[in-house]
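FAQ: What does a multi-protein file look like?

Like this. Sequence, then tokens, then the next protein.
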Amino acid sequence: QVQLVESGGGLVQPGGSLRLSCAASGSIFYIYNMAWYRQAPGKQRELVASITNIRSTNYADSVKGRFTISRDNAKNTVYLQMNSLKPEDTAAYYCKAHWRVGDYWGQGTQGTVSS
């Protein structure tokens, strides 16, 4: 019911910033609960941040105070602003949409933090 395309990944030095975007298709984006996950090589995929259809947000403890999730329903887009990046933030970042019993995933975008 929805297709997701992530963008905005790249290479950044420690302490730098990246802004990830997730563009969604469809006319009912506003009802979806959205989230960002990340997965580093050899590690489990973990929830980074989420935002509901009423803009309630939650963050993993490891990113709280550094990352901000937001959404623009008029643009069918959810964002993840990542500041004060650390090497341990290096991962593939995935966007997820959820409604009722359905989960929809994007293909991911790579964020690399390195000197």
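And here is the next protein:
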Amino acid sequence: QVQLVESGGGLVQAGGSLRLSCAASGNIFSINNMGWYRQTPGKQRELVATITSGGSTNYVDSVKGRFTISRDNAKNTVYLQMNSLKPEDTAVYYCNAAVIRFYGWGPTLYWGQGTQVTVSS
């Protein structure tokens, strides 16, 4: 089985920074795309950032220039560095990974448990 464990959420003042981590473990041959999503009550889950196995990144417009997604393939871990945080960034953040469990298999999507990020003004 595969598990994604998130850490790094918390409470921060506007303008501050947080670094989220998401480590995948279990039966992993390789991981294709990884990403971060966020969700607030009454709203759809929003894609925040994605990163390919080769390091290509994509961001939602609202976080460009403030957030940076990165990954450490040796540790099967994806990170989200969040700078210049705003109250509207407050949400539960979920990581996602497309995991190839065995050689020759297609990817299976897995989700982290979610971590709360709260930005106060």
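Q: Is there any per-entry metadata?
A: Some entries carry free-text notes. For the entry above: The two ends are 41 Å apart (CA to CA).
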